[in-house]
Amino acid sequence: xxxxxxxxxxxxxxxxxxxxxxxxxxxxxxxxxxxxxxxxxxxxxxxxxxxxxxxxxxxxxxxxxxxxxxxxxxxxxxxxxxxxxxxxxxxxxxxxxxxxxxxxxxxxxxxxxxxxxxxxxxxxxxxxxxxxxxxxxxxxxxxxxxxxxxxxxxxxxxxxxxxxxxxxxxxxxxxxxxxxxxxxxxxxxxxxxxxxxxxxxxxxxxxxxxxxxxxxxxxxxxxxxxxxxxxxxxxxxxxxxxxxxxxxxxxxxxxxxxxxxxxxxxxxxxxxxxxxxxxxxxxxxxxxxx
Length: 290
Description:
Helix content: 55-70%
Structural class: mainly alpha
Distance between the termini: 42 Å
Number of helices: 15
């Protein structure tokens, strides 16, 4: 289980130190989600986690209060568990195996555990992430609205682009903040596809013009645009399970393509998005050192 970790004295702490909490939690969440067969099992798993957290420290209890799920739903959930949740091959056992590595650091364990559960809640759209048609219990943002259904062999750039396309096809009257976040995310996706050599510069120009038009027609204030960019980044990172991008890195990819620094590829080989991102990071590090 969790083969990406090396056999070190405390592989969980090393992973958090090396990759950060968000990226580490995301990888574990993906593994745990793979052990969940349906939404009923997923919801029971979340309820049990909230039930346990409600008896924990301040951070754990705060997580419960901000979950968007009422105490009447999760209270006593652990006593109502079933095999698919807490059996030897279930998600609960997988999470406990992770947490055992942090039993000497309760604060860190709570942070990792609640972050993992939050990712799972978002994946299944439970609690504060609940969406029913066009109605939500909380203000919607891009990551809550986009349905991750595309399975392109070319990877995350194409998947983001295609899923965004389906979002706007199904929803003609999205709020301005979602529309602008869509613009940032699609601009990034198309720039990445250009780096792969699977779209041409005409599409880059077209999408860039749409992006600038959206900036003019929504809200040009710095705060609004920053928030939209952050919402787009949240969606982008939701697709990458082994990489957590920064706004600087996303901007660098877009700028490199739109300014003509990256030339069209003429090779049969199509690089994967992770290879392109690593190349951009290498370039950014070089520029900072020189």
